[in-house]
Amino acid sequence: MTRQELAEAVNVHTYRLTEKITEVDANHIGKWERGDIRWPAAHYRRALRHILNADSDLELGFRRRGNGCTTEDVDRRTYLGTTLGLGVGVALARSRGAGVTGGSSEDLVTSIAAPTESYRRMEASVSSRDLAPAAEGHLRLVKQVVRDKPHDARGFAALSEVAGFSAWLAADRGDTVLACARYRESIRFAESAHNPLLVSYMIGSLGHFAVEIGDPHQGVRLLDKAARQLDNSSPAAARAWLASLRAVAFGALRDRVAMTEALTTAEHLADRRPGEARWPWMFAFTSAKVARYRSSALAKFGDLSAAKSAYAAALPGMTTPKPQALAKVEHALLLARTAHQDEAAKLGLEALRVGRQYGSERIVSNVRTLRFELPVRSREVEDLDRMLTKLYEEDQR
Questions:
Q1: What is the pTM (predicted TM-score) of this model?
Q2: Burial of residue 29, with CB atoms counted within 10 A of its CB: 0-12 exposed, 13-18 middle, 19 or more buried
Q3: Domain coordinates in residue numbering, the chain
């Protein structure tokens, strides 16, 4: 985790509990580490204690008087606490601090929400098949907890987030029925939380899922509904994200004018106030992320020249294997349909290795679709066929 990612986690945690928008950035984190700011505001210290699993402000290196902030202590907590992805299930496992059995409703909401944050960070590097049982089990637990105690807006908001993440994992495993059911649950819980921003996020996620499974018309309708939940006070990241999803949907519908307009809007809104990482948007929406959606939109539209340029521009910003693989197979499909079969097969093989390693049926299914577009026999295609066949053999064991 970088300083900026830690800063955004602080902003998210503060907003979750107080609904106060804060703009901590990497510069703030650096000042806290160096001791330039010896005693941050109480809500920042509380967020850091939660994120880094610290018992006290002193453990973080913060002191009111004396020698001030000790850089070594804070760095140690930062790297031990964040490099491991915020410690999976920290809130469930910790015996210190506020627990589920005692403490306030606010502490309880913090505890039940924390594992989802950890799972989200793990998802980029851990198989969805391995994460899904933990996420589904946590969803059942949170449903029970929210029914019993924090039967309020914050409890339902945490529940919506858990259901939304379970939907994402189901989609990655290729379980369309469960994914739709979980997305619908997440929307209902968000509505019970009376949080328009969260409702928009969950409806938008379902709309993008509809586009990805081949129903762009319904996807656009859902994305339009998600946009109606927002207003001018909504964070720029939310509006940029929705505009990017709309661009992908319009690309699938072959509507160049609407696609271009949506991409222009997303680019205009990207990188606005990067410290404003407001829950449920876990990280700032940057121009690098818009580039990824531009690549996807152009590939679905079928513009090979523009899509190749967008793909080349977006690839450096995709630092984890699964997003890279999804972009590769998307680009490979376009190459296959424009008589570049060998290059398409090579990219498909690279993507399939990732899909196999991380148990992503979303990637594997897309590669199978790609293979249907590759009638020409070649060494690259034969290598792809061998690996696809091996997947069937592995499933039989």
A1: 0.71
A2: buried
A3: 1-84, 96-194, 226-316, 320-397
